[in-house]
Amino acid sequence: MSKGDRHPVLHEPQALNAGATLDFYALDARLTYVPYFYNPSLTPDGRTFLVASDATGSEQAYAVDRESREAVQLTDAAGHGQDWAPYIRTPVDGVRPQFVCWSRPDWASVLFWEGNELRRVHIGTLAEEALFSLPQDIVPSPPHCSECGIACFGYLPRKLQDTMLTRSVEEIEADLERGWGFIVLDAASHEVIANVATPFWPNHVAASRDGRRVLLCHEGSWRRQRMYIYDLLDGHIRPLRPQDDGAAIGHEFWIGANRVGYHGHVEGRSVFGIVDVATGDRRETPAVHAERHAAHYHASPNAQWIVTDGEITRDYISVARTGDAEIRFEPVCRHGWPRDLDQRYHPHPHWHRIVTPDGASDVITFTATDVGDDGMRTGVGVLSLPVAAAT
Known about the structure:
Number of strands: 33
Number of helices: 2
Distance between the termini: 41 Å
Strand order of the largest sheet: 1-7-6-5-4
Strand content: over 45%
Largest sheet: 5 strands, antiparallel
Mean pLDDT: 92
Low-confidence stretches: none
Shape: globular
Radius of gyration: 20 Å
């Protein structure tokens, strides 16, 4: 099968407690997964979601229509032997694994990496164009495209990526102080806005909604200075939340134009934090239970709710309010994450606000894994919650 082909999609709805519902969608494939945690999967109208899948043998990008229950293959990418070590060490053909995202603000196209070329494909016409190419001695990190149409990604020397097939980030950092950095790109004009060298591997690189700032992290240990903010107006980069107090924090993501969410441990307690990038003001709310399982977090657009795929429960998507003195997570549904497998199997929950003529609703997408008599299958969970829509 090839680009433009339509694949049937299995749909299994399930009623949950307290009015929540779960819709599970799967292609006839070994592996189907959502984009990286800070990239939305679902369009604002709730109809189409983006996945990567190996339904054709190699990993390609697909747009899944929830109404017709069909998946359109968007790419015929011919990348070979790609990995994202140390998080994905298996060689992958097709698109770079985990390296797909929506092209915003129009949601009409998808960005993906094929080898060392960042490309864009239109989900309707399937027309493709190249946006940017990296030299062969450099490899990219996952892309992000903000609401203002700015695409960002980190990069690092290929020789170091290759050594991480057997070594950790911390082990390889001593080998090189140059060659890391990130690129900020106008996705409409293909113009490079900034190419910033860093003394560390930058990851989670994402522009703010207003296009003024870029969020990034120092990939590796959470106990060193982790979060940074780059100002596109003055060209300065600075720590976002100083960690000289011994905090171990990470998995940062934008909440609106001026706030960043994160989680981790501060003074021995599991916390969820929100920091204002303009003022530096922050609130770090401790959880009732200590974090026992590594996880990803995301938040509703108004930051009144958060979701995690770990925390107090190993196998469940859990949600919590943020306005109380302590955060109390409530398990909602299983995700089935096989934790001995690579990053593509992580649930990576993402909170969406869906707006239709009938009103607004809160929906969480995540990669779901099911193990049955026929073996293991992965797909997409779409969790609809009976809470007030985020604003």
